[in-house]
TrEMBL record:
Domain of life: Bacteria
InterPro entries: Rieske_2Fe-2S, Rieske_2Fe-2S_sf
Record SUPFAM superfamilies: ISP domain
CDD domains per UniProt: Rieske
Location of the Rieske domain: 6-110
Name of this chain's protein: Rieske (2Fe-2S) protein
PROSITE patterns: RIESKE
Pfam families from the UniProt entry: Rieske
Record keywords: 2Fe-2S, Iron, Iron-sulfur, Metal-binding
Length: 112
């Protein structure tokens, strides 16, 4: 059974071309993050498929310098924003765990 949708933030709180991290529900140690591309949003569990650590070295820093790819700070794995697949690094071919996300009336909601 999938988790119910819960409100994360207002859409405009995520900069276009940027990303924002969120803690999990109460009692959860693992968080998630949302990447915004224009009007679209993509969300993943904040856990690298390589060894399972959070990707962001400092809060909300999930993307490379150009803002094109998701980066894991631990060993430099890079993931496509659109599908979370690792395209370079030690877990090449693995994928970030997707989280269902939607924007409703300007509010970002996720099943997490
Ligand atoms: S933990 Fe992410 S690349 Fe190693």
């Amino acid at each position: 059974m999938s988790a119910p949708m819960r409100a994360l933030c207002r859409f405009e709180e995520i900069p276009d071309g940027g990303a924002k991290g969120f803690s999990g529900p109460p009692g959860s140690f693992i968080g998630m993050f949302v990447v915004r591309r224009g009007e679209r949003v993509f969300a993943y569990v904040n856990s690298c498929p390589h060894v399972g650590v959070p990707l962001d070295p400092v809060p909300d820093r999930f993307l490379d310098r150009k803002g094109e790819l998701i980066v894991c700070s631990a060993h430099g794995a890079r993931f496509r924003v659109e599908d979370g697949e690792c395209i370079s690094g030690p877990c090449m071919g693995d994928v970030l765990e997707p989280v269902a996300v939607e924007v409703v009336e300007g509010e970002v909601r996720a099943a997490f």
